Amino acid sequence: MQQLGAGNLRAIEIGVTSRCNFRCSYCGAYDLLERKILSVDDVASVIDTLPDLERVKLSGGEVLLEFEICEGIIKLCTERGISTQINSNGTLLNEEKFDRLEAAGLDVLHFSLNHTDAQSHSAFYKVTEKMFPKIVYSVQRAVESPTIDAVVETILFNETEKRMTEVHRFAADLGVRKHEIQMEIPSLHQGYENTMTRDALADAIVDLVSHRDPRTELYFSCLSAYFHAGTEHWKRLQPYFSADPGVIYSSCIEGKAQLHLHSNGDVMICELGNPDVIGNVFETDMLSIYNTSDRLKAFVHSKHDEGSFSCFRHFDFPGQTEAQKAEGGPTLLPLPTVRGK
């Protein structure tokens, strides 16, 4: 097993701001009320302590509400040879901003796309129908960019369960060649719980993979949160993945090679499945947090114990075995709290 230590932390996801112009029911953002914002200098002081950093993802909230900060961070990373990605809902971009992002050196624009028409999008998100054409424009403009790689992400939950193939074809027709499918993750700190059973998730995945558009690859993330090797569900899914080179899934790197940095400086293993603060960069540098956190070590080690591992750390204490849980009951982690800085 790869050991925790200097040189292994290759990626960070930075929640530049918690502000957003949407209110998604499934949002896993750590603290939507936090109003602190990381400056470019703050980010520089963090990444300069990470000698083997390869990738920085900028997220939120809607990160493009702080466009100038995003632009500055991208320039900073480009100068250091670090690749960058922005996760966005795509409603705030225009030609001028695209030009500036291209000039700054942005590598990837990652858009949320769960619908194929303005009416259903508006009804679900409770926003004006004018929002959807803005998303379509942003996706198409990113596809046309000579330097930016366009990726769309669709959450697999009850809203998209019966329309995954439709959304996939819509994305392919827009010119998208990388379509990420994100398993829904319960975010109890935000009041969101699962909407689908494992059987329903597996059914939707099989249907989507069976109808994959040959122009567009499918990337599945967070599969291990639901399907472990050797289980009946995995035995059902694995042949579909093996038969199609355009269907890709990878092991989760959260905690092992990637950490999340919140806008107030808090460091988390993962904002989605484990919004558990293990330090703050305004108190301790990130590499030291990565090297010394017992919570982090327990989480990473537990990933190799299929009998006890679960991403849903709201219910499982990191590293706690099934026997320990049976003896004392599952440990409910405290809800995230904002540091008084």
TrEMBL record:
Keyword Nucleotidyltransferase: no
Cofactor field: [4Fe-4S] cluster
SUPFAM superfamilies from the UniProt entry: Radical SAM enzymes
Annotated SMART domains: Elp3
Region Disordered, annotated ranges: 322-341
Single biological process term from Gene Ontology: molybdopterin cofactor biosynthetic process
CDD domains assigned: Radical_SAM, SPASM
Molecular function per GO: 4 iron, 4 sulfur cluster binding; metal ion binding; oxidoreductase activity
Residue ranges crossing the lipid bilayer per the database entry: none
InterPro entries listed in its UniProt record: 4Fe4S-binding_SPASM_dom, Aldolase_TIM, Elp3/MiaA/NifB-like_rSAM, MoaA_NifB_PqqE_Fe-S-bd_CS, Radical_SAM_PqqE_MftC-like, rSAM, rSAM_sf
One Pfam assignment: Radical_SAM
UniProt keyword list: 4Fe-4S, Iron, Iron-sulfur, Metal-binding, Oxidoreductase, S-adenosyl-L-methionine
Residue span, Radical SAM core domain: 4-221
PANTHER family the UniProt entry points to: PQQA PEPTIDE CYCLASE (PTHR11228:SF7), RADICAL SAM DOMAIN PROTEIN (PTHR11228)
Protein name (Swiss-Prot/TrEMBL): Radical SAM core domain-containing protein
Biological classification of the source: Bacteria, Bacillati, Actinomycetota, Actinomycetes, Pseudonocardiales
